[in-house]
């Protein structure tokens, strides 16, 4: 059994277990027990060890430790109702721009407190079967307008090598699929998953990009950097996505350090996502102007290569929020912002 598989068998799923790694104050533990009922704690031993090496007030703790505040945060939910209309076969969402997203699995090894896909992640299983993958590949084969496929989840790289090889080699044989992008948090939470075998599977498609998710420079450990370099040194470009999180990374200094460290390690900062109001996320959501101002200031200070696109991730599209949000997709109502795309209505409250 490989190290990453062993880690998955030993995921930390209780606050008592987590306490073996990090000290949790009595009041924080009581609060965590309440938040845990809404969206259960889950992290890899690797990530727990990372937390144990950091200061006990380190902001990354807030990304994994439940809190009772989450209980009061159930308003302004994204509307996912229309999503099924864009899913012609199980496990795929076809977007208007000739792009298809393959939802490889709903499972994630780490449960991020700010996740707006909690209703998926909590279902645990739901990984594609080979027969699901066949149906998806057939659909893509028959729809020549699909030129780009994204692999997403949950955590797509948690699938077995066999399933990933089946999907990626299948896509590589479809001439009109020119690009594959993989959205993953695995390098930050389980870097041992980036094995030589996986790298060789990913190389089966000539134009494949990894969008790795990092929220803080301290997630770029030696192990994570080594995993990322194993990809980039083998011709697989690595980009980064970050979620802007109130009280965690919502300053020029923290994000600037992250973006610079990414770039220094051949990871191009690509997206800064606005944290979407969803169940349990309200306390982590910033005003949208916080993000635009940070980007403006960082743009003035850092190499432009360090600057990601700031966007609001709806379900069907990502709306660019730099330097100003698309006026045709936004209208002010009672001081709040109503964002629309072809799948989602999302109300962003004014702070
Ligand atoms: S990695 Fe993404 S999908 Fe998984 S729990 Fe975190 S935010 Fe949600």
Task: Name some characteristics of this structure.
TIM Barrel, binds iron/sulfur cluster, nine-stranded mixed β-sheet, 351 residues, single chain, alpha/beta
Structure description:
This protein is an alpha/beta fold and 351 residues long. The protein contains twelve helices and twelve strands. It has one domain (3-348): Aldolase class I (TIM Barrel, Alpha-Beta Barrel), CATH 3.20.20.70. It has helices spanning 3-9, 15-18, 26-38, 45-52, 118-121, 130-142, 161-172, 186-189, 196-202, 222-232, 252-264, 288-301; strands at 92-95, 99-103, 148-152, 179-184, 208-213, 238-244, 267-274, 309-313, 318-320, 330-333, 336-340, 345-348. A hairpin with a 3-residue loop joins β1 and β2 (99-103). α6 (130-142) runs parallel beside α7 and α7 (161-172) runs parallel beside α9. The longest helix has 14 residues, at 288-301. The protein starts with a helix and ends with a strand. The structure holds iron/sulfur cluster. Iron/sulfur cluster binds next to loops.
Number of domains: 1
Structural class: alpha/beta
Number of strands: 12
Question: For the CA atoms, what is the radius of gyration?
Answer: 20 Å
For the record, the CATH architecture stands as: Alpha-Beta Barrel
Number of helices, where a helix is a run of at least 4 consecutive DSSP H or I residues: 12
CATH class: Alpha Beta
Could you give me the name of the CATH homologous superfamily?
Answer: Aldolase class I
Low-confidence segments? none
Q: For the residues shown, what is the average pLDDT?
A: 90
Q: Which ligands accompany this protein? A: iron/sulfur cluster
What's the order of the H and E elements? Answer: HHHHEEHHEHEHHEHEHEHEEEEE
């Amino acid at each position: 059994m490989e190290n990453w598989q062993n880690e998955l068998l030993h995921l930390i799923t209780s606050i008592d277990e987590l306490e073996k790694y990090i000290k949790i104050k009595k009041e924080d533990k009581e609060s965590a027990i309440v938040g845990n009922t809404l969206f259960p704690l889950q992290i890899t031993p690797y990530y727990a060890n990372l937390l144990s090496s950091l200061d006990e007030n380190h902001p990354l703790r807030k990304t994994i430790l439940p809190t009772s505040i989450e209980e009061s945060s159930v308003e302004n939910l994204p509307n996912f109702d229309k999503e099924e209309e864009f899913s012609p076969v199980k496990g795929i969402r076809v977007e208007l721009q000739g792009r298809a997203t393959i939802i490889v699995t709903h499972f994630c090894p780490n449960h991020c407190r700010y996740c707006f896909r909690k209703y998926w992640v909590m279902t645990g299983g739901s990984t594609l079967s080979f027969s699901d993958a066949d149906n998806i590949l057939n659909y893509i084969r028959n729809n020549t307008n699909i030129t780009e496929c994204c692999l997403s989840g949950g955590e797509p790289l948690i699938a077995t090598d066999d399933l990933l090889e089946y999907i990626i080699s299948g896509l590589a044989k479809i001439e009109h699929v020119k690009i594959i992008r993989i959205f993953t948090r695995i390098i930050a939470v389980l870097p041992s998953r980036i094995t030589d075998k996986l790298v060789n599977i990913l190389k089966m498609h000539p134009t494949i990009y990894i969008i790795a998710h990092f929220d803080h420079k301290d997630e770029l450990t030696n192990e994570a950097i080594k995993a990322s370099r194993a990809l980039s040194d083998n011709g697989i470009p690595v980009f980064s996505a970050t979620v802007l999180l109130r009280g965690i990374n919502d300053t020029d200094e923290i994000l600037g350090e992250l973006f610079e460290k990414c770039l220094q390690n051949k990871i191009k900062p690509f997206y800064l996502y606005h944290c979407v109001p969803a169940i349990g996320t309200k306390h982590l959501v910033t005003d949208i102007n916080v993000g635009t101002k940070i980007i403006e200031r960082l743009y003035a200070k850092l190499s432009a290569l360090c600057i990601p696109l700031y966007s609001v991730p709806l379900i069907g599209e990502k709306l660019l929020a730099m330097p100003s949000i698309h006026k045709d997709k936004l209208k002010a109502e009672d001081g709040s912002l109503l964002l629309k795309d072809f799948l989602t209505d999302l109300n962003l409250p004014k702070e």
